[in-house]
Amino acid sequence: MKEKILAAIDKNSKITPSDLAVMLGADEKEVVKTIKELEDERIICGYPTLINWDRVQTEIVTAMIEVKVTPQRGLGFDKIAERIYMYDEVEAVYLMSGGFDLTVFIEGKSMQEVARFVSEKLSPMEAILSTSTHFVLKRYKQHGLHMDYKKEDERMSIIP
Amino acid sequence: MRNPLSETITRIQPSGIRKFFDIVSEMKDAISLGVGEPDFDTPWHIREEGIYSLEKGRTFYTSNAGLKELKIEICNYLNRRYDMEYCYENETLVTVGGSEAIDIALRAMIDLGDEVLIPQPSYVSYEPCTILAGGVPVIIDLKGENDFKLTRKELLDAITEKTKILIMPFPNNPTGAIMDYDDLKDLVDIIIEKDLYVISDEIYSELTYGQNHVSIASFPGMKERTIVINGFSKSYAMTGWRLGYAAGPSIIIEQMTKIHQYAIMCAPTTSQYAAVQALKEGDKDVEGMREAYDQRRRYLIHSIRNMGLECFEPLGAFYVFPSITSLGMTSDEFASKLLYEEKVAVVPGTAFGECGEGYLRISYAHSIENLKIALERIEKFVSRNKN
Hints:
The complex is a heterodimer. By secondary structure, chain A is α+β, with helices and mostly antiparallel strands.
């Protein structure tokens, strides 16, 4: 049941519990209860909207920063990751395998703002050895959804 | 001047849905639930394989019966999914859609005057193809009270000395009916005793809900008298690629291949390469699409029953087939009025045989969002026309 609900709302969190119940052949109360449990267990962590900011006047700059850090004794990477993700400017933080340790996504109003964050907040942290900043130029696809592409129904209207 | 047309062709009626098609295509903001093909695109990895084959310059004919690699994969698939054993060398034939397979199976087996049993409501091509092959279509009217399954009695009553072929159109377009193991078992002894051949159109075999499809050819004694027809259109959302296949005893497949060779040459090469990929790597895609259809199916049945319309639970394909007799309209009247008044197109049941009178075919090969809008309009229409 949990997996079925998660798969159904993964790409569309707007489905109402009553519709979801019908679609999954389940009881509505059961669906509501399960969703509540999933939220409590932090399996469902939120319901954000996927916005293509490129199409809005408001300018938003996103940067992906590769960060190398020194892990701290007994705390590993978690402590330093927390110190980074607590900043509001930070959109996402992932621990990585390979040539660097953390990927940090930063959102700002301008390149200057992002650059300032990196030089004034991120780089000076004691555990951080180096950063490498890459600005995002265009988003094509996010969360499995195409940003620009809207499919028209080109099928013939009546087919036996 | 002499009449240019053959007597046979003038006996065949044009498809009854043409009229609706013309109206819908002229109408702005009409939503059509009359579409008999998936709304999904062919999964990208399959499309890419087609593109790749073009890039590699694979633009030649394949052998008449189809690419060896594809036929091997077809046999693997039939074995993996339906527990049937076919030899790729002489028991399979790759065709231009399931449609061609239906046509040439009938042509390979019918002599003038042979009777072909066609359960209806069903897909529109069995009857004309039978007539064109010189056969005599004998219609079996399936009943709503039997969930549109073919019963033992209905089959027995229809058999005469001239009966040679039984068409088995399950999972069924337009009713969504399926025949499960027990339903089929009920018919098998009659088919063998009366020495009938079966053309089993299983094009919707991947779209059954809550249980797996069972092929009649998998029963003991049935493989040698059954042509199984299947294809890529519905299961892999590949309608435009025009690719299907037939599997059956070599004595029939060899003759079908002969007709195919003279009429068609071979199925499209690009599509055949893409289909190899579909069979090798496409199981997960099929599963995902089936789950999406199942959710819409439940949603549609729920909404239609809430309107007060009677609707049996279809367990296959992507159609529901509600009864509208409670509204005192014919299928045609309902469909026309609904189209003009609420701009929603559905197909009258009569397009699939006279016994489809009183029913509508509603397709759920549409996004939930579109279904919602259409269902709201249908509900308005139904409540306005209730007595």
